[in-house]
């Protein structure tokens, strides 16, 4: 049933990782967290290794985060924005990758708009592949950095009530987080318009429930994770932006229902006034910027595990 | 014309309910007799000891891609794959380029088949012009040119009024109307069966309802028009229930299932291997259970492959970008033996029926019997010997099979068309 996370030890998804593997990455991430401060010294762990970031979908934040992580470990990085290269000329994914492999990188970090694209490549290539987001499937390093951010603020994930709100069906961030949180024994509450939160999501793991009202979802929550509204998916749930914000946007009155010190998270970039209000985004419960910082540390841990 | 004496086999002939040791004599391309201890001096003998000898298998649902898409398959290559799969008769769907929507294309296919195919090929004409679902195709002219049914396979006819008019015409011409049942609005954008797996894999779903809605519409129209109506590649348990209901009310309704729809489920999509992508999509275990029950009970009339070759360059892509469909001619019998017969679900007699008299009745074809006077088409197969499918050795021009490397227990041994051995496991193609 599970997809193999193990090409030559790449990272394709959270679903096929077991809890101890995830814990090892999260623990190692702590070691890299101080690297962001001014005393940072470039490490030589991955000296002589080259990492290709191959992004078939634009994402400056994730790509730069991976590149900084790789460089801090001493690796060389080569960045390829595939949507502007030969891919748009009709070259197949396999051909593009074969070309890259001929350049002999040590790992490929890839983002692709098609679910399963990294799994597809992993079957054809003998190079570790790190999934930096595939279609509407998974975004494993995002879930890892989210878990690290929670653990920076809570002693354990177990039994935390985590509400994930928005377009769950089309969110790779949500899927990876659901798997991770469920493996760690959290109580996961999913919430959004019905057509974007199909019932089948409840069978992705243990402890998952579905609510269609924000108030029910955020009540007593320890963590509220908001998802970015993806305008290109709106045809699946015709709903105006104002209607969406009214029923599924996170506002201070919702946070009043959550636990007093609840955390607000968002994978970014945020749409103020669309999925969350400015008051919430800038409130002290917001750990959105901590997430960004943890992104680099967690990606260092992942790259070290794969290439170190 | 060819003559052949097939000696020492175990003959199974559903048309006459014969099930026992017998010889089959073909003289000048026609079945002359079958019975014990036949002797025919001067006629070539084929030793079928240890094998099942059956009427030639009929596949009423294949895509031969000719004219227009010859890089994926031709009438010749598809015909050869059919022979290697034990089929002596195949019916090809009209989604060629141009579509088989007029007598010129029909005649072209008939002519090419005569010249290049080792097995009989009957074309199926499209229901509408260009398979666009709007204006009726030149159905009467195509009938004169040799079509045996009409279908817009791949493209369901979404407009109920158009289907109704096509059904009325088909009935007057004694043609079966075959529908690929899929409500395109419900299935739009979908890549696999909608369910837990599609949600888990982040792939867009094709709900069972997209098939069920269309089957229900068509059954109502079939009753209205009295047409002989056939559901192609039925894949859901609800559609089967509706077909059973229609049959119980005496409607002239039939259905087929493909081997992949009773052999594998949407769990297999987990690897994002595009060889598991087809329409209808692989469904769930409860659908498979219902389909197998329907095969046992007789509610399902035929096994058909929906052999759908696609060139590697098209199929070897991201799951959501590759075309739908898999090849199936060479693996159909092996899968059916393993899933249906070796598990004790059905007898060999029923299996042979699903490949012979069953599909022949659906389209009112003369094939599928060993009765004296019938064309000398015979399929010889074995029910035990393990063999492993190597898609690289396929006679098809395409390689899009999910069954590469799978070991089957029993399969085709020799295929005889009008008294000529066109393929045998030992010698290959004639």
Word description of this protein:
The complex is a heterodimer of chains A (308) and B (430). Chain A is built from eleven helices and nine strands. Chain A is an alpha/beta fold. Chain A has two domains: 10-138 and 292-307, Aspartate/ornithine carbamoyltransferase (Rossmann fold, 3-Layer(aba) Sandwich); 140-287, Aspartate/ornithine carbamoyltransferase (Rossmann fold, 3-Layer(aba) Sandwich). Chain A has a five-stranded parallel beta sheet with strand order 7-6-5-8-9. In chain A, strand 5, helix 6 and strand 6 form a beta-alpha-beta unit. In chain A, helix 1 packs across helix 5 (140-153), helix 1 (19-32) packs across helix 11 (288-307) and helix 2 (60-72) packs across helix 11. Chain A starts with 18 loop residues before the first helix and ends with a helix. Mean pLDDT of chain A is 89; it is low at 1-7. Chain B has helices at residues 75-84, 103-116, 139-145, 160-172, 184-187, 196-201, 208-225, 237-248, 259-263, 285-297, 312-315, 332-341, 348-355, 357-363, and strands spanning 4-13, 18-27, 30-35, 45-47, 52-55, 57-62, 87-92, 120-123, 149-151, 176-179, 192-193, 205-206, 228-231, 253-257, 302-303, 378-388, 407-417, 420-424, 428-429. Helices cover 30% and strands 23% of the residues of chain B. In chain B, 60% of the residues are buried. In chain B, the strands form four sheets. In chain B, strands 1, 2, 3, 4, 5, 16, 17, 18 and 19 form a nine-stranded mixed beta sheet that branches. A five-stranded parallel beta sheet of chain B has the order 9-10-13-14-15. Chain B has a three-stranded parallel beta sheet with strand order 6-7-8, sandwiched between helices. In chain B, a hairpin with a 2-residue loop joins strand 17 (407-417) and strand 18. Chain B has 14 helices and 19 strands. Chain B folds into two domains: 4-52 and 376-429, Urease, subunit C, domain 1 (Roll), CATH 2.30.40.10; 56-363, TIM Barrel. Chain B starts with a strand and ends with a strand. Chain B is globular and about 65 Å long. In chain B, helix 4 (160-172) packs across helix 7. Chain B is α/β, with parallel strands linked by helices and 430 residues long. At the A-B interface, helix 4 of A face helix 6 of B.
């Amino acid at each position: 049933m599970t997809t193999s996370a193990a090409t030559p030890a790449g990272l394709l998804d959270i679903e096929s990782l077991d809890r101890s593997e995830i814990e090892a990455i999260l623990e190692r991430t702590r070691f890299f967290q101080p690297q962001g401060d001014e005393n940072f010294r470039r490490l030589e762990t991955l000296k002589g290794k080259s990492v290709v970031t191959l992004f078939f979908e634009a994402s400056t934040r994730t790509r730069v985060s991976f590149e900084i992580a790789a460089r801090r470990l001493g690796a060389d990085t080569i960045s390829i924005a595939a949507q502007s290269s030969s891919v748009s000329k009709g070259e197949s994914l396999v051909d593009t990758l074969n070309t890259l492999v001929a350049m002999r990188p040590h790992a490929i970090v890839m983002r692709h708009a098609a679910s399963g694209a990294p799994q597809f490549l992993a079957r054809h290539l003998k190079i570790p592949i790190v999934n930096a987001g595939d279609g509407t499937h998974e975004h494993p390093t995002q879930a890892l950095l989210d878990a690290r951010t929670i653990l920076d603020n809570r002693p354990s994930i177990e039994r935390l009530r985590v509400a994930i709100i928005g377009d769950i069906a089309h969110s790779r961030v949500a899927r990876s987080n659901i798997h991770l949180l469920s493996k760690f024994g959290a109580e996961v509450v999913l919430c959004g318009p019905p057509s974007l939160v199909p019932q089948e999501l409840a069978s992705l793991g243990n402890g998952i429930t579905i609510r269609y009202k924000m108030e029910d979802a955020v009540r007593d929550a320890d963590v509220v994770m908001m998802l970015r509204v993806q305008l290109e998916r709106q045809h699946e749930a015709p709903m105006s932006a104002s209607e969406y914000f009214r029923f599924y946007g996170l506002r201070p009155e919702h946070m009043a229902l959550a636990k007093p010190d609840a955390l607000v998270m968002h994978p970014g970039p945020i749409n103020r006034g669309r999925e969350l209000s400015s008051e919430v985004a800038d409130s002290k419960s917001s750990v959105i910027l901590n997430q960004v910082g943890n992104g680099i540390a967690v990606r260092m841990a992942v790259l070290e595990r794969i290439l170190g | 014309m060819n003559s052949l004496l097939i000696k020492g086999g175990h003959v199974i002939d559903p048309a006459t309910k014969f099930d026992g040791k017998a010889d089959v004599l073909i003289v000048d391309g026609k079945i002359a007799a079958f019975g014990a201890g036949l002797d025919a001096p001067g006629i070539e003998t084929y030793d079928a000891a240890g094998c099942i000898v059956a009427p030639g298998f009929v596949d009423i649902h294949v895509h031969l891609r000719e004219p227009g898409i010859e890089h994926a398959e031709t009438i010749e290559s598809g015909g050869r794959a059919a022979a290697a799969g034990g089929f002596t008769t195949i019916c090809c769907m009209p989604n060629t380029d141009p579509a088989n929507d007029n007598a010129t294309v029909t005649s072209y296919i008939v002519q090419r088949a005569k010249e290049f195919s080792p097995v009989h090929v009957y074309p199926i004409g499209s229901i509408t012009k260009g398979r666009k679902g709007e204006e009726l195709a030149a159905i009467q002219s195509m009938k004169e040119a040799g079509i045996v049914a009409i279908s817009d396979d791949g493209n369901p006819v979404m407009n109920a009024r158009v289907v109704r008019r096509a059904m009325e015409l088909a009935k007057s011409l004694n043609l079966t109307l075959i529908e690929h049942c899929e409500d395109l609005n419900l299935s739009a954008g979908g890549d696999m069966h909608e369910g837990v797996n599609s949600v888990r894999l982040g792939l867009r779903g094709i709900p069972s309802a997209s098939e069920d809605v269309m089957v229900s519409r068509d059954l109502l129209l079939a009753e209205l028009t009295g047409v002989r109506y056939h559901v192609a590649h039925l894949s859901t348990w609800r559609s089967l229930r509706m077909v059973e209901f229609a049959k119980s009310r005496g409607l002239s309704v039939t259905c087929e299932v493909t081997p992949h729809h009773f052999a594998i489920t949407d769990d297999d999509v987990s690897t994002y291997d595009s060889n598991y992508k087809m329409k209808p999509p692989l469904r769930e275990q409860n659908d498979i259970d219902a389909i197998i029950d329907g095969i046992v009970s007789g509610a399902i009339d035929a096994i058909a492959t929906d052999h759908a070759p696609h060139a590697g360059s098209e199929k070897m892509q991201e799951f959501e970008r590759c075309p739908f469909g898999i090849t199936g001619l060479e693996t159909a019998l092996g899968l059916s033996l393993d899933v249906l017969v070796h598990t004790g679900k059905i007898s060999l007699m029923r299996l042979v029926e699903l490949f012979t008299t069953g599909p022949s009745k659906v389209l009112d074809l003369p094939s599928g019997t060993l009765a004296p006077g019938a064309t000398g088409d015979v399929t010889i197969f074995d029910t035990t010997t393990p063999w492993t499918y190597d898609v690289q050795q396929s006679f098809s021009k395409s390689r899009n099979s999910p069954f590469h490397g799978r070991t089957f227990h029993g399969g085709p041994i020799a295929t005889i068309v009008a008294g000529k051995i066109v393929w045998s496991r030992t010698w290959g193609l004639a």
